[in-house]
Design a protein that fits this description.
The chain has 148 residues and is of the alpha/beta class. The chain is built from 5 helices and 5 strands, in the order βαβαβαβαβα. It has one domain: Response regulator (Rossmann fold, 3-Layer(aba) Sandwich). Helices cover 40% and strands 17% of the residues. α4 links the parallel β4 and β5.
Length: 148
Amino acid sequence: MQGSQATITILMADDDEDDGVLVREALAESQLPIDLHIVNNGEELLDYLHNRGLYTDQSQAPRPGLILLDLNMPKKSGWEVLQDIKTDPKLRSIPVIVLSSSDDQQDIHHSYDLGANSFITKPVSFIALVEIIKNIGKYWFEIVQLPL
């Protein structure tokens, strides 16, 4: 965003529908100009990023400026997807924030070893989630310079 009000696409991968609803509501509360797209598993996330399957229309599946990634997903785990993203020259520049219910140090270390840009443990309260989403938006879209 860097001072502008351009809409940023966030792609969230999480198999828990309630988490997606909460993040969508937190984004609405934060009043950030963000277009949230949600996929339910790791394979769907990669299809979205590569514009395959249900996501061939790039206007319906724009390249995300940021990915929120759950670790425990069906079909392809968050770690497998993270490794795929960070080893793909076309995708590795997209920041990936692991947003997980885990606070296990092994999960944290493994995520960073695979190239995660941040690791955030999901908060239990909606108010805390809104605050985290505001901070994510401020940091990733107002402070840092992202590649276009």
